[in-house]
Each structure stands twice: as structure tokens, then as C-alpha cells.
Design goal:
The chain is an alpha/beta fold. It has 13 helices and eleven strands. The chain has helices spanning 13-16, 24-30, 46-59, 71-74, 83-98, 114-118, 128-142, 155-163, 175-202, 227-250, 305-317, 337-351, 393-404; strands at 6-10, 64-68, 102-108, 148-153, 209-221, 272-283, 286-288, 322-327, 355-361, 380-383, 388-391. The chain has an eight-stranded parallel barrel, surrounded by seven helices. A two-stranded antiparallel ribbon has the order 10-11. The longest helix is centred in the middle third of the chain and has 28 residues, at 175-202. The two termini are 23 Å apart. The mean pLDDT is 97.
Length: 416
């Protein structure tokens, strides 16, 4: 079967770059919250090895790369910008473009400079202009090189994990604050969308595309015959992703979302960016993994049909081209990753949805937030001690699909 979807890879700066930067995830490590004791100061040393990584991408035939810039590296102090960091990122972008790799630039991917965190971060609506100032700096610095932008990665995960579950920094446990953070980040996305378009137009550039990377999952009741469980599943889906979808894509803020600045209803995305991993089974006010379902090494259910369900909901809200900006699985021994990718891509192809890109999460194994170095999602194996990169069987499977433009089950049997 022909594969009409362009295949790329994704990463995040704090998960690959390394460096003892003053941001919230280095602080979170210092406070002892990483399960295996590892920390982002090592990661994949990508800041020093990006040529090696980009060369490897090019050798694998990868022509689309979603990556993020590190706010704490570019603006280590409020109002002070490190010109050498900007030069480093420009060199990296120019190098990847020289290898015929199209950049998709993420402006915020879970990490805040500590000075921003100490000002209240995204829990303080007065900080919206502070974030937008960074957006403006990024566009001035990279706007001549980059056409496509992700404003914010997974506002719902950032808010829920950091301010409700307490598993991400700053480790708070308040549903009210989590909803406030989600609302403020939605306001930031809309304003950033407008700002990026305005600035690039003033710079004389065309082809600007802006979106936000939305983490979505399927919420299904433990029993479809139970009105209570069904209602809880729908409510959970609305609180976690539905209201945020509506606010970010259309500027319409419905309860429990709140507008902290004036925003007019409109269309605030040029493409739909979906991050999809799993399904959650809802029992009352709690969710878990469906009994006897296939799971990955973190216990997340593997449910390929869900990627179509989530993409359809986005498309029904605002019909735009669809980018799967993250999809992948924790498979530490690389035994089922190829099948995971195959099943998700096949579901998308058969759906007839306008999916034009699929960015696998992730390129190399990396620092996987609270899991540290213990959870491997990469197409490329990372030896953290030696920093040696080795293409996995799943990476070779990915390469074969890129090379042939086909997706067929025989590819799953590629020799080692």
C-alpha cells in the first residue's frame, strides 16, 4: 500500500541537549524526583553532537524534524539573551536545511527558566506578556529560517502533571490551579499564533504555519452500559482535552476554561498537531488501563484506533491538514515498536483523514522526564555512558518505509 504520509521524527531540547541550565527540570532533578536518578544535564549531549544526529537523520532518509529551542539557554536571565546560544541554534537549523530536512520549531516544550518559574510561571496571568516577549525574540532570531511553528507542547499535560498530579515541576496538587494554567497557556497560544504571523509578514516572509501540539487520548467507560461511567468518561475527556481544543483552535473559551486576556473567536491554527499515545479506561472519577489489553513497558495501553478517533475530533473542530507531531511507544528491547508504528500508520491511511505528516517520538532514546533514562522511545539506541548511537530494528523499518513510500506487513520481518 502506498504511504501518502511524510515520516519524520521529534525531540525536545531538555530531553536531548544536556547542559547544566537553570530550568525547572534540572531543578526537579536536584530535588530528587527522577525515578532512576538520572538528569537532563547529560541526556544525549545533543548540544555538542547535533551535527552527528542530523547526519544520522539524513542517512536514514528523514526529511522532517520537529525540535524545540530551550528558553533557559536563550534567555538565562529575565531580559538577557545569550547571543552564542542563538548562533548555535541558527547553525543547527541551517545545517539541517542543508541536509534537506524541514524544521518544525517548538517554542515551549515543558521547560521554564527558573527566573520565570519564580515569577509564578504560567500560573500567573501577568506573565503572558513575558512569554510573548520570548516568542517575539525567537521569531526575530529564527524567523528567516523557519516557516512552521508549534507554540506550546501539550498544555494539558503540563498543567495536569505539574499542578494537579504533582508529578512534574512545580509539584502542586490543585485542580483549580491546573485549570487556570491550562487557560493561561491557551491564551498564550492564541496570542503567539497572531504574533508569529504578524512578525513574519512584516519581515516579508510567506508560508507561515502555526499550531499547538495537543496531547489527546481516548477516554472510554469501563462499561458502556453504565450511564455513570459513560458520563464520567465524557466529562474527563472534556476537562482534559475538549475544552482546550475549542479554546486553542477557535478562541472560544467554555467552562472550565477562562479568558485571562481579550480574545476574539476565530481560527488559530494552520494545521492540527496531534500527540497520541494511548487510551484510558474510566471507572467513575478514576482512570486506568483496560484489563488484559496490550501494553507498552510503561503500562500504557496500545490502542491504534484511538489515533483516528482523536484526529477526527480535532478535524471536526477545525478542518485543517493534520500532523501527528508525536506518536511512539516505550519498548526498551525494541520488540514491538515496528508493529506499533505500522498499526498506527495503517489506521491513519485507512481513515482517509488529511494526515500529511507523522513525527515519530522520538529519534534517539532520551531523558524521558520523570522516568529519566529508564524509558526508551527511540528509533536509535542511545548508550548514555559512551553516547554511541545505534539504529534499532524499528529504525531500519522506518527507513524502509521512507525509502519505498510503501507500508506493508512484510516490512516487519526485516532482518537484523
Amino acid at each position: 500500500m502506498n504511504l501518502p504520509i511524510k515520516l519524520g521524527v521529534a525531540s525536545a531540547s531538555a530531553q536531548i541537549e544536556g547542559g547544566n541550565l537553570k530550568h525547572n527540570w534540572n531543578d526537579w532533578h536536584i530535588k530528587g524526583h527522577i525515578k532512576d536518578g538520572s538528569n537532563p544535564t547529560r541526556a544525549c549531549d545533543h548540544w555538542n553532537r547535533w551535527r552527528e544526529d542530523i547526519d544520522l537523520m539524513a542517512d536514514m532518509g528523514i526529511r522532517h524534524y520537529r525540535f524545540s529551542i530551550e528558553w533557559a539557554r536563550l534567555e538565562p536571565e529575565n531580559g538577557f539573551y545569550d547571543g552564542s546560544a542563538a548562533v548555535g541554534y541558527r547553525e543547527m537549523i541551517l545545517y539541517m536545511k542543508g541536509k534537506d530536512i524541514t524544521p518544525l520549531l517548538t517554542l515551549h516544550h515543558f521547560t521554564n527558566p527558573m527566573w520565570f518559574e519564580e515569577m509564578g510561571g504560567f500560573a500567573n496571568p501577568e506573565n503572558i506578556p513575558v512569554f510573548l516577549k520570548f516568542v517575539a525574540y525567537a521569531v526575530r532570531t529564527f524567523g528567516d529560517l523557519v516557516e512552521e511553528y508549534i507554540t506550546i507542547n501539550e498544555p494539558n499535560v503540563f498543567a495536569v502533571q505539574g499542578y494537579y498530579a504533582g508529578e512534574f515541576p512545580p509539584g502542586q496538587k490543585s485542580a483549580t490551579t491546573a485549570l487556570k494554567v491550562m487557560s493561561i497557556m491557551a491564551c498564550c497560544h492564541v496570542r503567539a499564533y497572531q504574533l508569529i504571523h504578524q512578525m513574519r509578514e512584516e519581515m516579508g516572509h510567506i508560508g507561515t504555519k502555526v499550531g499547538f501540539a495537543h496531547h489527546m487520548r481516548v477516554f472510554t467507560p469501563v462499561s458502556s452500559k453504565s450511564a455513570w461511567h459513560t458520563t464520567c468518561a465524557k466529562t474527563m475527556a472534556w476537562l482534559f482535552q475538549g475544552a482546550l481544543t475549542k479554546a486553542c483552535l477557535t478562541g472560544r473559551f467554555s467552562a472550565p476554561m477562562r479568558k485571562y486576556i481579550e480574545i476574539k473567536p476565530g481560527e488559530y491554527s494552520d494545521f492540527l498537531a496531534l500527540n497520541y499515545y494511548t487510551r484510558s479506561t474510566v471507572t467513575g472519577t478514576k482512570y486506568s488501563t483496560k484489563a488484559n489489553a496490550p501494553v507498552n513497558d510503561l503500562g500504557w495501553e496500545i490502542y491504534p484506533k484511538g489515533i483516528v478517533s482523536c484526529a477526527t475530533k480535532l478535524y471536526e473542530t477545525l478542518p485543517r491538514p493534520i500532523y501527528i507531531t508525536e506518536s511512539g511507544t516505550c519498548d526498551n528491547n525494541d520488540t514491538f515498536r515496528s508493529k506499533y508504528i505500522y498499526d498506527h500508520l495503517m489506521a491513519l491511511v485507512k481513515s482517509k483523514l488529511p494526515v500529511s505528516r507523522y513525527y515519530h517520538w522520538c529519534f534517539t532514546d532520551n531523558f524521558e522526564w520523570c522516568e529519566g533514562e529508564s524509558a526508551r522511545f527511540g528509533l536509535v539506541h542511545m548508550d548514555y555512558e559512551t553516547q554511541e548511537r545505534t539504529i534499532k530494528d524499528s529504525g531500519r523499518f522506518y527507513m524502509e518505509m521512507i525509502k519505498t513510500g510503501l507500508i506493508k506487513p512484510e516490512m516487519l520481518d526485516l532482518p537484523n
